[in-house]
């Protein structure tokens, strides 16, 4: 028996003797009242033990998908900004996109060394395509994992008409923003996000669209 166990037994015996002496000296009603906090402390200890040892309940897949769809939907009066590295085969190129959430949906995109601007939105936003696939039910949660030290969900995408969107995607558990999108078609494409954010549509930020 260790010293810790012996000390606990001594404390238990001392506490029991003290309670017995108090009961002998005091009226029964007061003694019972004095014992209630001890029982309450024991119950609280049991509750803490239960909460500490229990694992958190997993979030339902449907709830995760709703969070992903909401996170990838631009709020009003904002500018979506994405910055990533796109790899196809052995070639890697920076990708950057700014697109206005409100009409006329002006955008500016840099991809494979080319830069373009326009209005009406752009079809070169892989995160928007991922949102559409999530909303249509063509994606599901494959695993809970860690991506480069960030707690993440791994999504599997199947059935997309655009073959470059079938594959896997990683989204952050905290924000549900995309971290990486991998597609095997056409030799494989890998999009590693360096930034995904919504900027307020201030006059200064609107200049980023030009």
Q: Give the CATH H-level superfamily of the largest domain.
A: Lipoprotein localisation LolA/LolB/LppX
Second CATH tier, the architecture of the largest domain: Clam
Distance between the termini: 77 Å
The CATH class designation of the largest domain is Mainly Beta
- Give the overall average pLDDT: 77
Helix content: 25-40%
General shape: globular
Tell me the count of domains.
Answer: 2
The fraction of residues assigned to DSSP E strands is 25-35%
- Major β-sheet, in short? 9 strands, antiparallel
* Topology as a string of helices (H) and strands (E): HHHEEEEHEEEEEH
The beta-strand count equals 9
In what order do the strands lie side by side in the largest sheet?
4-3-2-1-9-8-7-6-5
Task: Kindly report the CATH topology of the largest domain.
Answer: outer membrane lipoprotein receptor (LolB), chain A
């Amino acid at each position: 028996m260790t010293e810790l166990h012996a000390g606990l037994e001594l404390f238990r015996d001392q506490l029991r003797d003290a309670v017995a002496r108090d009961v002998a000296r005091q009226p029964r009603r007061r003694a019972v009242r004095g014992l209630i906090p001890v029982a309450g402390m024991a119950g609280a200890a049991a509750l803490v033990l239960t909460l500490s040892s229990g694992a958190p309940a997993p979030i339902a897949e449907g709830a995760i998908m709703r969070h992903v769809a909401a996170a990838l939907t631009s709020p009003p009066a904002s500018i979506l900004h994405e910055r990533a590295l796109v790899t196809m085969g052995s070639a890697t190129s920076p990708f950057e996109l700014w697109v206005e959430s409100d009409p006329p949906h002006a955008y500016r995109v840099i991809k494979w060394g080319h830069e373009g601007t326009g209005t009406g939105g752009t079809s070169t936003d892989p995160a928007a395509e991922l949102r559409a696939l999530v909303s249509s039910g063509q994606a599901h949660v494959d695993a809970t994992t860690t991506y480069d030290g960030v707690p993440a969900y791994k999504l599997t995408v199947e059935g997309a008409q655009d073959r470059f969107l079938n594959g896997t995607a990683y989204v952050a558990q905290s924000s549900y923003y995309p971290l990486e999108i991998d597609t095997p078609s056409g030799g494989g494409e890998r999009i590693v996000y360096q930034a995904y954010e919504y900027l307020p549509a201030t006059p200064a930020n609107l200049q980023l669209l030009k």
